[in-house]
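ok here's 3-isopropylmalate dehydrogenase:
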Amino acid sequence: MKTYEIAALPGDGIGPECMDATRIVLDRLCELTAGLNLRLTSYRAGAELYRETGQTLPDGVMSACLEADAVLLTAIGLPDVRYPDGTEVQPTMMVGLRRALDVYAAVRPVKLYPGAPCALRDTGPGIDFIVIRENLEGLFASFGGGAKVGNEVATDTLVVTRKGTSKVSDYAFRLAQRRGGRPRDGRRMVTCVDKANVFRSMAFFREVFMDVAEFYPEIEHNAVYVDAMSLYMVQNPWDFDVLVMENQFGDILSDLGAGLVGGLGLGPSAEIGDEHGLFQPSHGTAPQLAGRNVANPMATILSAAMMLDWLGDRHQDEICIRAGRTIENAVAAVLKEGHVRTPDLGGSSSTLDVAGAVATALESVP
Ligand code: ATP
Ligand code: MG
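and the structure:
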């Protein structure tokens, strides 16, 4: 029976509290589930570590991440901890880790759970779609580079490659195969979000997407301009299933998505490659909440659920896939019941209260 080795990076700010809460849930899940074995090993990385040692991601931690079956990370970075050139440590460290793990697809579910605060008055047939952001190129290709010409002009470079676009598009179709389709009518569809009418790079993104779509005739596909998409996400989000887009567009639309369905405390994310997976809440380190036992751990707990789903799919391990679903169902049950909520959701429960409630709910959900 396989034991999954998980590299756990508790990070900075509210990160360690969210990680502790997630461990409580995962430990209970393993107790309840015959045949599920996870071994979480904690490693320090991030801004606090940099302050103490001058390193953000020591070589030993990087190799542990490369060797692990999956990486579970909370949040990294503190505004007052900076590199000598004045930049925060978080972007550089995360880009380095992403590139090393070659995680080309950033996956953010936008799912409305009953009981979660929704920004829309009318939620129609429900909100449940996925934003997939190309994670290694696009407008972030010149990360740390770019050019400033004198004092008047600055430029960055947007790079779209056939290889990068094919991989992320292919991932989008494979994910659509595993999902239940869009809320409106269950039709499976992948939507390319771009600005193909203006930019050559974006026209190429769409062209490569269309090439990949040919391999998935059973799944519908279409393409929508990014400006129109931000309107549709608010007006008729139930018409969408899986969206795939360039890096910067994904950065923006995934935050819009998080805002639709309850805010950062509820938004998980997964970064997926051919060999590695990195799972992380979409929020940052919220330093003003750190150490107070008030942060919402649900985003990290749901990220762990995505991790189990990915591990199970990758290793053809039904127990693991079902365990991921059980965590998600337990979070949904706590939200629906409504008594245990952290302050960001309008309650007064603590981080550990939420962990306890989710762990207890594991016993009574499918
Ligand atoms: P980053 O640059 O790392 O993304 P950020 O400054 O954009 O960080 P976050 O750290 O994500 O922002 O947090 C923004 C605000 O959202 C926080 O100040 C906090 O009020 C709220 N927030 C974020 N995550 C949580 C959470 N897990 N629980 C409760 N509130 C949260
Ligand atoms: Mg942010």
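+1. The mean pLDDT is 96.
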